[in-house]
Design the sequence.
């Protein structure tokens, strides 16, 4: 296949880009080029960095936002004119009944169970688990090793940090940070930062 048939573009040349390039390689797909606003970056995981975003650069190719920060990913999505693809690493388990929005990625050894609904530009990171009938809104990230039990709802822009556990049926609001290793046993309001086992709100993010 030519690069125009199986290639993708990435925006962002940090660590998450290396993960996505690795996932594309595992699928025998090519990473054609990477955009990044830092002129010092010229190569990431063997792929050329071609400078700031240009809508006229291979406009036929789909793109992924290779940025882990949910807020930055949200802002970049508003500027990109390319279409967005999706990506599932071959070691991930994603049930056929799930839905994935544009720009969403499920990487190495993650699990997404039956009936889950993932919005746009969601990241299901290494070894994370999203159980049946969970609903994740746009720009959510489930970090490595985090576990969402069944029927959990997660609002836009929320980060479920590494190793956190959310018990069944919980509703987590928008733009929340659930700290690493937290155990969430009750609903969480928008903008909260929570830590601990059981988790508690320690502060609210600035608007």
Sequence:
């Amino acid at each position: 296949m030519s690069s125009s048939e199986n290639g993708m573009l990435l925006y962002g040349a940090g660590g998450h880009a290396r993960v996505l390039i690795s996932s594309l390689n595992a699928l025998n797909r090519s990473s054609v080029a990477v955009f990044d606003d830092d002129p010092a970056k010229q190569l990431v995981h063997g792929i050329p960095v071609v400078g700031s975003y240009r809508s006229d650069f291979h406009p036929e190719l789909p793109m992924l936002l290779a940025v882990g920060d949910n807020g930055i990913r949200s802002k970049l999505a508003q500027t990109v004119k390319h279409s967005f693809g999706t990506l599932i690493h071959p070691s991930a388990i994603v049930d056929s009944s799930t839905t994935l929005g544009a720009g969403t990625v499920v990487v190495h050894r993650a699990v997404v169970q039956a009936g889950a609904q993932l919005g746009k530009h969601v990241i299901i990171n290494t070894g994370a688990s999203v159980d049946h009938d969970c609903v994740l809104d746009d720009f959510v990230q489930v970090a490595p090793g985090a576990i969402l039990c069944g029927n959990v709802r997660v609002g836009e822009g929320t980060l479920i940090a590494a190793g956190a556990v959310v018990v069944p049926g919980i509703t987590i609001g928008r733009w929340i940070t659930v700290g690493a290793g937290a155990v969430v046993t009750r609903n969480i309001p928008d903008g909260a930062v929570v830590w601990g086992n059981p988790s508690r709100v320690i502060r609210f993010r600035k608007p």
User: Anything to note?
Assistant: The longest strand covers residues 30-35. The two ends are 47 Å apart (CA to CA). Residues 49 and 144 are 26 Å apart (CA to CA). The chain has a mean pLDDT of 96.
